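Write out a sequence, fold above all:
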Amino acid sequence: MSPDGMNNHGASIPGFKREFLHSCLSANVLTFGTYTLKSGRQSPYFFNAGSFHDANLLSAIATAYAHTIVNFLDTNHQVPCPDTLFGPAYKGIPLACCTLLELRRIDPIKWGKVKYSFNRKEKKDHGEGGGLVGAGLRDANVLVVDDVITAGTAMRETIEIVKREGGKVVGFVVAVDRMEKIPSSTDDDGVPRPSAMGQIRKEYGVPTASIVTLEDLIELLRQNGDETDMDRLKDYRRRYLASD
């Protein structure tokens, strides 16, 4: 790592990450500018997984999630192969489904019987009823697939949903790890704090993974020669980098 905290990995970004990032840029899923987040922070970039709305883009993100999950399981031997992929409503729903199809394509023997499930925002009191769609979660090892985690509220809600349904969350996989500290009332205070993902790992002992990180975005901009946006991301990192 360089003195300013930037990884010196250059062209070593794996191919599936590069293809994913290029797909994000070409479809304006990943954009650079000035964006106000829910926390009130002014972010120099924005990622919108809801813009993956055609077959080519779905294929790109499913491939990236699938490779990330395979690598995640290969490097975390304590994590069991999941019985179910869970996509939190709403954006997580198509992500979990298309990722599971890609995992089956990669290894049909290992993934062919793995199920998917997602929650309803409001419980249904007719038909099959309940708060879930897809597989039940009782006694299931559950891997959660979601887009971006900022404050961690959605992660905690998902853990509680899975627990209430009798399952166990064995991991979280997201598209982008923003690597920024949890917001506070005095946000730009220079006080070290963990990221939302880091806090979840500490509180619940649940391992996490991401397709790309803030470091990957900075490296992509460096490779593309976009010094203006790269410097803005590096400044954002200096102000809000998490302590974990």
